[in-house]
Design a protein that fits this description.
The complex is a heterodimer of chains A (112) and B (117). With 112 residues, chain A is mostly beta strands. Helices cover 0% and strands 59% of the residues of chain A. Chain A starts with a strand and ends with a strand. Chain B is mainly beta.
């Protein structure tokens, strides 16, 4: 079945440092989504990428979708303590678009 | 209104109890989901309702029974749960099929933190 792998599992940074999490799918994806879950909170939809090679920015966050539509990355420039949380990527399954396969997530901690 | 609400926030129940979790959205979304999330793990899909009909059941034990009374509401009835069912239960919704395209970006509620004693 489809697998979505995400690395690293954990990342500790000093405030102001950059952070990147990577997502790789075993199959080609029609789109990829990113979610953020704060400690004690719920997943919050951040963005969806659809096109091959697409790059989208949200303030200090940059999202990329690979040319083969099998990998993606989220880069945060100059992390802040408000960036703390777990970042999940998710891709729809080929057999059912309503069924998302989530990566295991990258837990980001930021030391002030 | 871009919010998914869930009640209760916390629930403690014994293994012989019957309880229900409730979820509501007023975004006009036609797909609604129940997920189970254990600590430090991604959400695990349980059920999907599309246009108020159950479209996906991920082989969930029958002690979990979903119900979709209308397009805005989703319930999860719980009966005879086990301690290993303790988790965060998340409801989510997505737009579903619109304009010839399936919109599956999901909007999650705050969840119900369930403890089974």
């Amino acid at each position: 079945g489809q697998q979505v792998m995400q690395i690293p599992q954990y990342q500790h940074v000093q405030e102001g440092e950059d952070f990147t999490t990577y997502c790789n799918s075993s199959t080609t994806l029609s789109n990829i989504q990113w979610y953020k879950q704060r400690p004690g909170g719920h997943p919050v939809f951040l963005i969806q990428l659809v096109k091959s090679g697409e790059v989208k920015k949200q303030k200090r966050l940059t999202f990329q979708f690979g040319e083969a539509k099998k990998n993606s990355s989220l880069h945060i420039t100059a992390t802040q303590t408000t960036d703390v949380g777990t970042y999940f990527c998710a891709g729809p399954q080929e057999t059912s678009g309503s069924r998302l396969t989530f990566g295991e997530g990258t837990q980001l901690t930021v030391n002030p | 209104d871009t919010e998914v609400t869930q009640t209760p926030k916390h629930l403690v129940m014994g293994m012989t109890n019957k309880k229900s979790l409730k979820c509501e959205q007023h975004m006009g979304h036609r797909a609604m989901y129940w997920y189970k999330q254990k600590a430090k793990k991604p959400p695990e899909l349980m059920f999907v309702y599309s246009y108020e009909k159950l479209s996906i059941n991920e082989s969930v034990p029958s002690r979990f029974s979903p119900e979709c009374p209308n397009s805005s509401l989703l319930n999860l009835h719980l009966h005879a749960l086990q301690p290993e069912d303790s988790a965060l239960y998340l409801c989510a919704s997505s737009q579903g099929l619109a304009g010839g395209y399936y919109h599956n970006e999901q909007f999650f509620g705050p969840g119900t933190r369930l403890t089974v004693l």
